[in-house]
Amino acid sequence: MNPTVLIATTARWLPTARLTIALANTGFCVYAVCPSNHSIGKTNLVRRIFRYRGLSGLGSFSDAISASKPDLIIPGDDLAAQHLRSIYLELLRKSSAAAPFCKLIERSLGAPESFPILFERAKFIEFASKAGIRVPKTRVIQDVRDLQQWTSQNGLPVVLKADGSSGGVGVRVAGSFKEAESALRSLQKPPLFARAAKRTLIDRDPTLFLPSLLRQRSVVNAQTHVAGREATSTIACWKGEVLATLHFEVVHKTSSSGHATVLRLIENPEMSSAVKKLAQGLNLSGVHGFDFMLENHTGDAYLIEINPRSTQVGHLTLGLGRDIPAALYAAVSGNEVRPATKVTEKDTIALFPQEWIRDPGSIYLQSAYHDVPWDQPELIRAFIGERRKQSAWYAQENRLQGFAAGRLNGNEKSVTNTHGAI
After folding, report:
1. d(Cα 217, Cα 203) in Å, to the nearest integer?
2. Is the separation of the CB atoms in 283 and 107 below 8 Å?
3. Of 18, 30, 346, 360, which has the fewest beta carbons less than 10 angstroms from its beta carbon?
4. In whole angstroms, what is the distance from residue 162 CA to residue 188 CA?
5. Greatest distance between any 2 Cα atoms in the chain
6. Which residues, other chains included, contact 67 with Cβ-Cβ below 8 Å and sequence gap of 6+?
7. d(C-alpha 190, C-alpha 269), whole Å
8. Of 291, 210, 261, nearest in space to 391 by CA
9. pLDDT tens for residues 60-110?
């Protein structure tokens, strides 16, 4: 019998659907708990989808776990990972009958004693530093007085980050103290109700609703600025052992603090050493992502944060040791690793639809491997439809129709419009 995996997500992130496909193709029986109308439903590869209810998130996850009885849970976003941690802590207070649930969450995230480190930026950086990993100075900032002390000791610019944020939403780089002070206040304050309501009603993402309603303030950290190039790693690991690794240098992003749209596959011994030390030291399991800065003048790799969840590159199958789904399947099933066929021999990868949205005329849509799921036309249409609601690019109806209808029906591998290839 094939092992079962539960994809657990609170957001409609498109990469989660790509990971679902890759896991199913590897041999997993896939279940999902996600918000309604998630693009996962367009894959036709999920045994059952459970609805995520934003106002009862923990209950949604618990119900899905009870019904699907998975061998592994993969959180698709930061809040999903936090939900699993909260469920674990709640179960510990109950009877021993909850032990199987706790073991499942440990198998999916790692050792419970590491949970506080995974979810608090300052604690994580402190742990990494003690493990001998190169990191920027990091400290929790309580108020303006703390900020003044930090900048006087460490200078400017300063990077301010809110715990629990992702995708660059809770990150600010300030070049002056005035900018830093404004950023601190902005990051600490609860989400505006109008913003939370818009996110809930228009984007159908209830993530901000409860924090806004309960007036929850965020923990903000200051980090010294490292001038350099961004890089990222995603690993599959099992009981502290790294099974597969993907290292990328970021070529393009949606914005200065947004997510990557074009990546270049790299080998970096310092990054490899860092993720192995962290996986072992924290006794990690499942899928985890790590962000680095490669310093301009030295090339030194500075670890800046961890993402205790799947990332947007987790579905890429790039050969032995670089196939996250195959490594997880082998760990859970006890079988040998059987990586899928490499999707490309190219090092540079343009993510779909991220790079097309960033620049429909991007040269990387032709020169790089454009990661379009051509065997999933309904998913392509869902990706386009979801982005159409949120991006001005999709206001132009002819561009959409030419891509989704005419080109897909012709089963073409390259699509062009008035703005170039996509």
Report:
1. 23
2. no
3. 346
4. 7
5. 63
6. 48, 50
7. 40
8. 261
9. 999 999 999 999 999 999 999 999 999 999 988 876 657 888 999 999 999
